[in-house]
Known about the structure:
Number of helices of chain A: 11
CATH class of the domain at 28-39 and 71-207 and 214-219 in chain B: Alpha Beta
CATH architecture of the domain at 28-39 and 71-207 and 214-219 in chain B: 3-Layer(aba) Sandwich
Structural class of chain B: alpha/beta
Oligomer: heterodimer
Radius of gyration of chain B: 17 Å
Order of helices and strands of chain A: HHEHEHHEHEHHHHH
Strand order of the largest sheet of chain A: 2-3-1-4
Largest interface: A-B, 16 and 28 residues
CATH topology of the domain at 28-39 and 71-207 and 214-219 in chain B: Rossmann fold
Distance between the termini of chain A: 23 Å
Shape of chain A: elongated
Strand order of the largest sheet of chain B: 6-7-8-3-9-10
Bound molecules: adenosine-5'-triphosphate, magnesium ion
CATH superfamily of the domain at 28-39 and 71-207 and 214-219 in chain B: P-loop containing nucleotide triphosphate hydrolases
Helix content of chain A: over 70%
Amino acid sequence: MTVVGYAFDEGWTSVRRAGKSAVISIGTIAIAFVTLGGFLLISVNVQRALDRWLEAAELSVYLQDAITDDARAALESYLASQPAVLAVEFMSKSHALERFQNDFPELADVTASLSDNPFPAALEVRLQTGQFATDMADELARTVAEREGVADVRYDRRWLARLLAIVTGARVAGAIAAAVLMLGAAFTVASVVRQSLHARRDELEIMQLVGPPFSYIRGPSIVEGLLLGGIGAAVALAAIALVFTMAGRSLEADLAGLTGGAQLRFLGVRESAILLFGGLAVGAGAGALASRAVK
Amino acid sequence: MIETHGLGKVYGRGLYALRDLTLTIDKGEFVFLTGPSGAGKSTLLRLLLLQERPTEGEVIVGGRNLARLSQTEVQAYRRTVGFVFQDFKLITSKTVFENVSFALRVLGLPVEQQRRRTYQVLKWVGLQHRLNSLPEELSGGEQQRVAIARALVNEPHLVLADEPTGNLDPDLSLEIMNLFREINAGGTTVVVATHDRELIKWVGRRVVQLEQGRLAGAEVPQ
Ligand SMILES: Nc1ncnc2c1ncn2[C@@H]1O[C@H](COP(=O)(O)OP(=O)(O)OP(=O)(O)O)[C@@H](O)[C@H]1O
Ligand SMILES: [Mg+2]
């Protein structure tokens, strides 16, 4: 207990004494964590939009006009029996036309001028979610296209999967960028801690002669790093929150089409905790590393 | 308590600060180290505290060969030794009280006990009214007494003192020597390096004389 209290006293004193260089190292930590936090924030929201789309994603099996009722019924029960399928609904040609007219009333002239109904009948398939179901649905989309009476298959998840791959790629890139910045931030923290040790070298030399356990020598350095990292991460979190509240509301309207009007979400407790503890951990690690110089 | 065998310390190019020193100091003894300036008194004390490592020979304290101690054991060993330096070695940024209590803090004593014992020992050296002063606000003699208080506060088995009265007037020197005698009476081994012949005569204990890093002859005046 006394070593912890001592480490916090001395660590905090060192942070204050470091002055400008402490501010700089807190700044670099904050920049690294703003990057990481920003990516997390975007990633959380994009993931939510994707999840919504994935849930809504359907397999549309367009039927040839000439298909017999028997063949249609067979196809329908085949689809319904597939484990990846949640539900199958038949949409007749006239129902398809009606839906188009409802969706695009401004094109009423065009549809009214059509002598023939150009819309094919379709079986609208709602799919299960989850990776396993997705794999099976991919397979189903391929095989059902081959079956008798099927004109065409529209399968939303194909392009969603591609989008997902892009998002994942962006996420990895963000993580790498944040890691590089983090490494730089750790170095600045380590150099501030080393400076503090240098400033205290006479004191440390004298302390050594009293024979303190190494925790008394290293503890203050670890705490100094911990404080710098923690403050940096907290500053970053506050900055992200500020930008989010100022810019988020106006973005929400612009992005309504993508998000389905859902509110943009701020980082959850878990993500915020990851950022804060990440800052504390990076700082403490850098401090510990710097303190190994003391013999 | 202390044994040295063929102890030698070389600085730089072949300058022997200590040479082939074989010496035994028993537990509970009070020993003066004396000899002209540059004889190697401070060097011997530094080797005993493991502030430096010997070039030749070995040092055995309390049955343990100091050369074989690990880093952690060195720290633990130092906690059992009280040291008074020629140049005090007080932490300038800490108060008198903090300088002394640090020696107890590293032992992990409860805070209440740290406070009580620090106050007692500072009162014992007559500095109870300067608890919150910084070292630079004290006279040389007062700083010397803070250093002594720090060395004695954790009741060490062994006290090593390098010119502990170098900055003190004769009356105060005798008082300080009385402190050492008191702690020695409690069973602590005490080794004091000094030039002060008067003091040695007055205390009347075993004297180890060094000259150019060698033993020049031991005498026991009592
Ligand atoms: N760090 C060092 N580097 C080089 N030489 C040193 C060092 N420390 C001591 N010496 C030399 O070793 C010899 C012994 O020095 P030491 O300090 O032990 O003498 P001393 O007996 O304590 O003298 P004094 O009475 O003046 O304090 C001296 O010649 C000194 O110059
Ligand atoms: Mg000396």
